[in-house]
From TrEMBL:
It comes from the Bacteria. Pfam families: FCD, GntR. The lineage of its organism: Bacteria, Bacillati, Actinomycetota, Actinomycetes, Micrococcales. Residues 12-79 form the HTH gntR-type domain. Keywords: DNA-binding, Transcription, Transcription regulation. This is GntR family transcriptional regulator.
Length: 227
């Protein structure tokens, strides 16, 4: 018998690899919201057929990074100001819940890693900050075992990532250290075992970003130009 993998598994593995590359590019801002994603271009770039490309796009759609329109194509997901506000309101409510589930399960090594990420963020440029900030918050949620809450939070992070980038760039430009202060308060509360206070810090942290984005509708106007 041949040791070759069945075609469907080959396509799934290739699709995962394509999704990994495209996900990284979207999160780094290589493809801004509203950018058309052409299946034929991805297939040529990865020297594969369109089947694994479609698998990759379906995976990224489930993560909130790509929008698929039947008989039309695929685009990097985009939001209006009202939509972004709604997602941030949801984040304010559910991320503290997820943190409450996760906090008792964080180990001393996890907390040390969070302190290290907080250190890195304080000396980072805007793009580096985004990478470390995402790692920081997702680590605080990682130990929780949930049916859907964890995946929902990651999806919300993905869908709002581009707009958080704009907020971070503006905060760096005016040397606003509020986010760094929040991160330190959050780790301190977690070290004390005070999950309730940690949740309050997190809620205020998310709300601050939402309010700041509301003050900058031009971010969404620029995005609309791509539509």
């Amino acid at each position: 018998m041949s040791g070759a993998l069945p075609p469907t598994r080959d396509h799934g593995r290739a699709g995962t690899g394509i999704a990994d590359v495209l996900r990284d590019e979207i999160l780094r801002g290589v493809h801004p919201p509203g950018t058309r994603i052409r299946q034929e271009d991805l297939a040529a770039r990865h020297t594969t057929s369109r089947l694994p490309v479609r698998e990759a796009l379906r995976l990224l759609e489930s993560e909130g990074l790509v929008t698929l329109v039947a008989n039309s194509g695929a685009w990097v997901s985009r939001l209006t100001l009202a939509e972004c506000e709604e997602l941030y309101l949801v984040r304010e409510r559910i991320e503290p819940v997820l943190l409450g589930l996760s906090a008792p399960l964080l180990t001393p090594a996890d907390l040390d890693e969070l302190d290290g990420l907080a250190d890195l963020m304080e000396g980072a440029d805007a793009e580096e900050f985004l990478v470390h900030d995402r790692a920081f918050h997702l680590l605080t949620y990682a130990p929780a075992r949930t049916v859907m809450l964890g995946d929902t939070v990651v999806g919300l992070w993905n869908r709002t990532h581009h707009y958080r980038r704009a907020f971070v760039a503006a905060a760096h430009a005016r040397h606003d250290g509020a986010a760094h202060h929040d991160h330190r308060l959050l780790v301190a509360a977690l070290r004390r075992g005070d999950a309730e206070e940690a949740a309050h810090v997190l809620e205020r942290h998310i709300r601050r970003t939402r309010i700041e984005l509301e003050r900058h509708p031009e971010i969404f106007d620029a995005d609309a130009a791509l539509r």
